[in-house]
Amino acid sequence: MAQTENERPIVATAPAPADALVDLTAAAASDVADLPPEIMAQSLGQYMRAWLQRIRSGDSGVLPVLLGLILVAIAFEIITPENAYLRPSNLVYIFGLSTVYVVLATAEICVLLLGEIDLSIGSVALLGGTIAFKLVQVDPGPNWPWWAAILTALVCCGFIGSIQGTLVSRLRIPSFVVTLAGYLLFQGIVIVILGGADGTLTVSSHVPNQSVIYNLVQGIINPTAGWVALAVLVVIAGTAIWIRGASRRRSGLVAPPAALIAIRIAFMAAVGVAVVAICVANLPSGVPEVIPIVLVIVGVWTLLLQRTRFGRYVYAIGGNPEAARRAGVNLAWVRTGAFALCSATAGFGGILLGSFFYGQYSTNAADPGQLILYSVAAAVIGGTSLFGGRGKPIHGLLGGLLIGGIAYGVSLLSLGSLSTPLTYILPGGVLLIAVLVDVSSRRGARTGSVSRV
Amino acid sequence: MNHDPGGAAGGTSAPVEPLLKLRGIDKHFGAVQALYQVDLDLPAGQVTGLCGDNGAGKSVLTRCIAGVHQADHGQIFFEGQPVHIRHTRDAAGLGIETVYQDLALADNLDIVQNMFLGRERLRRGLLDEDSMERAAAETLSSLRVTTVRSIRQPVASLSGGQRQSVAVAKAVMWNSKVVLLDEPTAALGVVQTGMVLNLVRRLRDRGLAVMVISHNLNDVFQVADRIAILHLGRMVAEGPAAGFDRQSVIEYMTTGGPKMQAHAAAVGAASATTTGGA
């Protein structure tokens, strides 16, 4: 490590050290407006001011999607017949509907971070779903245990993703083309597995082995267990965040102000209470199993992207592939791995989709083209950049909820003739706005030219 | 071919053996001979300024040391031992780090993440952010890079001089012994240039062998202890900076100096005109 002789370490950041060290270049002070708010803020007030400044300069984070969610909720509550949009039954249905968009968007984010795109995940999702459903069939069928069926489906999808990733990373074929071909190819294979254009695959809630898959989305956790799980989750997550902040502050590193951490934990708890309350108010009363499942998926992806070497390299490649290459990062491996993980996650999304359709898979269950467009839209609306290097799994969660909310709201308008065109017009318009926000914040961030390797 | 205006190599405290020593380096790309029999010494604790006009072979020579290219002939001695640098990994293993003109920083990552890119510290399989942050802060403070507001700010928000400083700090973080800087001040204003040149002096004071490749003779004369001048792939002059003045360096850069001119005259008038007009 660096040999420091007489200097005391500038203990990270903060306003501390400028006086202690001879600053030879005081004139070259940097402009404060560009800085993320967490860095300089010592108190809540400072944090809020820095945060507002940052939003004004174009880097708005998850704020637009949160505002979008509120706006969509209010708008549909007003225009739907009998103001039915915000009823618990509808909201719980939206959670289920959004599930697949959330999972697919989370998968897509990993590839978007690289500056690539995967257009095949809609088909890959259906492929994963049909494989898993096929393997648990009883009458004529392999009748595999549910866990083996799911695992096999994920491995198959991961393998497909790694092949596409290899084509992209080794042969440098644009990912757009490779995955567009994959989209058509896998859709064909899905029809073969279903047994023809009008074939169906069904899992029943009455067969014990199949019911596990059926219940992934349809199953509910009873209210008491739901409340207990929420309490445990909030306590564990809150304690972990609090301890981390405290330990960073103790060792002299910069950490968000304690008040801010408290507000975050309170916000998290409030959202959790609201969700559980809605689910409990619904009939049958209880929290859908899919909510914790989706949270786990988003959580694992967050851990992978934020706290592992692989994740760091994904961001680095998205930001500057040449820098990553010179740093000794194996670009081909990271790219291939990202595509493989993206496809495996998408495959799980497909299994959830089948469960959402009451355990029935058919060729017209879902349009893979719409799935992929909605998932990319969800990722971008959530705040992930199409240009690579910027985005988080939480963006997929928020964006997926917004897309699901719009899609279901439009379907509630079915009495009017506007419903069908609006199914396309609304998400399209929202996506366009999201891309405009992305481009403007990119300009604002003064990012240099991104060279490709 | 070498001309040594100042006599003995090395400055006031001349080391017996230069840290990095190149002897008779040849490099050609197809029919184009980029380097002819180049000798170069990079002593520890001194800044060597490498000068030369466009196409003189500065970049090729740098890349041969950094392991990007391999010399066709010639030998490289590191701490007196002959070494083979076949890959950038070999150079890094010896403690030779290069800061290229384009810096190779990822704009979306912060300073700590950039400094540790490719060499992240792990704890229980996960990134050990706190330890990396402390180490990055130590390195930056030991180099007196104090103008950055926070080492957690993304590199995109830094000024040109700060970016250069981060790139240099990244290079010296790994117990490196030789640092090659390619045009470190090319895109910088006056104040920022001063900041980077101070940083170069600090590297020298830490006992590193520093090579600065620059077009800008002002910068070279400000920081260099020794000057080496390439002309059309040949090392036409090498020695203590005190032995050169601006005029002589320009003459070496453009015409290759008296010996080269004599040589050119002997070879043929045609090549002499092209050389002189360059």
The whole-angstrom Rg of chain B is: 19 Å
CATH superfamily of the largest domain in chain B: P-loop containing nucleotide triphosphate hydrolases
Order of helical and strand elements of chain A: HHHHHHHEHEHHEHHHHEHHH
Give me the number of helical elements of chain B: 10
Helix content of chain B: 25-40%
- Low-pLDDT segments of chain A: 1-34, 446-453
Shape of chain B: globular
Q: What is the radius of gyration of chain A?
A: 24 Å
- Mean pLDDT over the full residue set of chain B: 82
Structural class of chain B: alpha/beta
Domain module tally of chain A: 2
Largest sheet features of chain A: 2 strands, antiparallel
The figure for the number of domains of chain B is: 2
- Main β-sheet, spatial strand arrangement of chain B: 6-9-10-3-11-12
What is the CATH topology descriptor of the largest domain in chain B? Rossmann fold
Please, how many helices of chain A? Answer: 17
Measured distance between first and last alpha carbons of chain B: 20 Å
The biggest sheet of chain B amounts to: 6 strands, mixed
In short:
Chain A is an all-alpha fold and 453 residues long.
Q: What does the model show?
A:
The complex is a heterodimer of chains A (about 450) and B (about 280). With about 450 residues, chain A is mainly α. In chain A, about 65% of the residues lie in helices and about 0% in strands. Chain A has 17 helices and four strands. In chain A, strands 1-4 form a two-stranded antiparallel sheet. In chain A, strands 2-3 form a two-stranded antiparallel sheet. Chain B has ten helices and twelve strands. Chain B folds into two domains: about 1-95 and about 175-280, 3-Layer(aba) Sandwich (Rossmann fold), CATH 3.40.50.300; about 105-175, no CATH class. In chain B, helix 5 (about 160-170) runs parallel beside helix 6 (about 190-205), helix 8 (about 245-255) runs parallel beside helix 9 (about 255-265) and helix 9 packs antiparallel against helix 10. With about 280 residues, chain B is an alpha/beta fold. Chain B has helices at about 60-65, 90-95, 110-115, 130-140, 160-170, 190-205, 215-225, 245-255, 255-265, 270-275, and strands at about 20-30, 30-40, 45-50, 75-80, 80-85, 95-100, 120-125, 125, 180, 210-215, 225-230, 235-240. In chain B, the strands form three sheets. Chain B has a six-stranded mixed sheet with strand order 6-9-10-3-11-12, with helices on both faces. A four-stranded antiparallel sheet of chain B has the order 2-1-4-5, with helices on one face.
